[in-house]
Amino acid sequence: MDKNKLYIIAVDGPAGAGKSTVCSDVAKKLGILHLDTGATYRTFALGLIKKGIDASDSDAIKNILNDINISIEFENNTQIMYLDGVNVNGMIRTNEVSAAASACAVIPEVRLKMVDLQRQTAQKISMIVDGRDICTYVFPDAPYKFYITADVSERAKRRAAQLAEKGIVSDIEQLEKEIAARDHNDMNRKMAPLRIADDAVLIDTTHMTQKEVVDKVLSYIKL
Ligand code: CDP
After folding, report:
1. pLDDT of 223
2. Residue 115 to residue 121: CA distance in whole angstroms
3. Measured between alpha carbons, how far is 46 from 88 in angstroms, rounded to an integer?
4. Is residue 2 predicted with pLDDT exceeding 70?
5. From ligand 1's centre to the CA of 196, what distance in Å?
6. What one-character-per-residue DSSP string does the chain give?
7. How many angstroms does the Cα of residue 157 sit away from the middle of ligand 1?
8. 42 CB under 6 A from ligand 1?
9. More confident residue, 81 or 123
């Protein structure tokens, strides 16, 4: 592949499979950017919470769709999410926002708005893009596609460790339930549900270290 050509590496997988950390490592190694599309749904969900709108109230959400202004910037190669012009990176990782993001992501109008933003962002520069519908819907023509997953109990353990790093103590059983509920939402929604694209490389990371996963992804990229 021509080194100067723009390319997209598309990565899908369920909640807590470690996609984000793997993708940001791969991006650093290749000198490209990492677009975390989950952050767009999280930012939209935060906008709903701020307006006091229930994330599953599709009628109310359709009415205010254009009143929530989201933009993505990259500063020092790091993705910054802006909600109405304010950097909200520090506010979109709470459990409340996770649950609201998962609920509003089933609404087709919300997805179309987020997908539009994601496609615009990845137009000018090569990127590794992670989400739930990247291989199947957002960038079906991407030259590289991966599906990264792990057992639900392992994903809950990893999420607990991530939270522990931030000083948050969590109940693993509860986390496992929340992750399973989000899997259910993602896999059963009508529009662009989470599924393995026919042409994606499946990587089950349950018994793999992060470095092993990064190396495995890199081994497929031929520039
Ligand atoms: O990091 P984690 O896997 O917990 O979630 P995330 O990737 O930040 O995504 C937050 C929520 O947005 C998920 O629960 C999905 O329901 C939704 N999402 C989606 O529907 N489509 C995407 N391309 C990315 C995220």
Report:
1. 80
2. 10
3. 9
4. no
5. 15
6. --TTS--EEEEE--TTSSHHHHHHHHHHHHT-EEEETHHHHHHHHHHHHHHT--TT-HHHHHHHGGGS-EEEEEETTEEEEEETTEE-GGGS-SHHHHHHHHHHTTSHHHHHHHHHHHHHHTTSS-EEEEESSIIIII-TT-SEEEEEE--HHHHHHHHHHHHHHTT----HHHHHHHHHHHHHHHHH-SSS-----TTPEEEE-TT--HHHHHHHHHHH---
7. 18
8. yes
9. 81
Residue 80 bridge partners (DSSP): 73
Strand partners, 73: 80
Compute the average pLDDT of residues 194-219. 97
Kindly report the protein residue whose alpha carbon is nearest to atom 8 of ligand 1. Answer: 38
**Residue 182 CA: which ligand 1 atom is closest?**
14
Ligand 1 in contact with 105 (CB < 6 A)?
yes
What mean pLDDT is predicted for residues 168-179?
93
| 37-77: pLDDT as tens digits | 999 999 999 999 999 999 999 999 999 999 999 999 999 99
**Whole-number pLDDT of residue 5:** 80
Answer for the pair 148, 209: CB distance below 8 angstroms, yes or no.
no
Q: For the whole model, what pTM was predicted?
A: 0.93
Task: Sketch out the chain's domains with CATH numbers.
Answer: 8-215 (3.40.50.300)
Q: Is the CB of 131 under 6 A from ligand 1?
A: yes
